Amino acid sequence: MKIFPKISFSLLCFLLAACMLTACASTAGSPQAAMPVPAEPAMPQAQEPAGDLTVYLEASFANPLSNHPVYRRILDFKKKYPKVNLTFASPSGGLSDYEAREAEITRLNAELLAGGGPDLFLMGQRLTGCNLFPDLQKSMRNGAFLNCTPWMNAYGINLAGNDYWPCLMQAGQVDGNQYIVPLSFDFLAALTDGGTLSECGFSQKSAEKDTQSFLLQCFQAYQKTGMTTNLEEDLSVYLAQPLLDYNSGTVHLSDETVRNMLELNRNVHTNADWIQGMADFLQESRNSGMQGFAPCEARRLHDGKRLFEIGPYSGITSSAWALSALSDQAQILVPSNEKGGVTAVVKSCGMINANTQNANAAAALLAWLLEEDGQSMGAWPGTLLQAPVLKSAFLTSAAAYYERQKNIWWLSPTPEQKQLFKKQTGNDFIEKTDSEKQEYLQCLGQPLSKECMQALLHRLEKINAAHLQSFWYDSVSTTQTAGDMPLSQVYQSYLNGDIELDELIRTLTPLLELYLYE
After folding, report:
1. Whole-prediction pTM
2. For the chain, is the Cβ count within 10 Å smaller at the N or the C terminus?
């Protein structure tokens, strides 16, 4: 989506000059819980894991065909502790399995209400996550999960230590107790070519204040050079201020900081040049000889036709690799939130069921996933690259994920994988030609430079807010039906121009206030 050719300079100056409120830096973290949480044993004793253990992991990850890193790690746990009888509760994934998935989710919810269900939940922001637990914050406060702190201590994992990126662990805490353990996170990132950036008049110093200042610099560069910026993310996700504060029981949609970001989101969303941008993309895809969105975006950045590609780190990584193959000046900048820091959004997490009959084995597996080797394996439950919560695993995780893509299973499938493919799809596997393999590897690009990755590490030390889920699309649903998401529907009406901001706020604020206290 192109932005700024249609956005008035006066509007952006107004947004820039707006007074920023100093609200809580994190969605979770916590002096008071909305509801009491059951007391847990003070210091459980770790024992050799044994017995039955059921793990909730979506079918797309618990799949021996794709051999996802988290799946391999869990199987390695089973090898280490052969006395554990491990099974997966894996609801079907994908839009094509909607009815089957809904039936499985309904069954799992019934089991949970009856005091059962899987022992350990490994979840990401995918289709089954937001209708099994429509709101992780509320589930945490309602006693759905076991306090992990003493159990992690028993297995030598210090969740309160400095091994993790700032604020990440606090996002899953109530009164200092850890009920939700983040495993990976994402953040707003801006991909650019250093050579292009140095020639367009973009002032990094002026852009460092907050996201709106960053975008204002993009607009000024557009005025000077005609280079647009592509924005593919809801910016309100990256506010440090929570839109819904569970600790104080307040809704912040009408706060000036939030209003400014929502207005900017709508201005970006309704920009008419987006249609022309897609036409440009399709034409370049035909002409460039490089198929796929990422290579075309990389070519735009390299040729000076676009200044920035802005989105979640996981979303721009493939474009970054493609750009790195074209230029040795690929850079990733991280726009500041309204408090001058970085906002992290938790993308996958682990929770022990409060109903579990085998807390020891569940805790042992969760600790296993948090160890250095596990965090360094690559992406956790999610379709794209995400950042591991363990600081020391960032570089090795990124490298591991790149190698996984470089050696993706369908380039050289084993006989067993071919058989499994036919069993799962009903079709014979069609071998890729050498030219198809070469084209894939060429489009994949190459890893980002060490200097670029080190700059990212330095910036992530500035994380000062972490949210468990995005407000509009992945949480705060008043139903457990994936297709019924009233908040996102009302928000979409606002973005489309069907309703004004004041109506959005008047409609949702009382509904959410009731929701907080129900």
Report:
1. 0.86
2. C
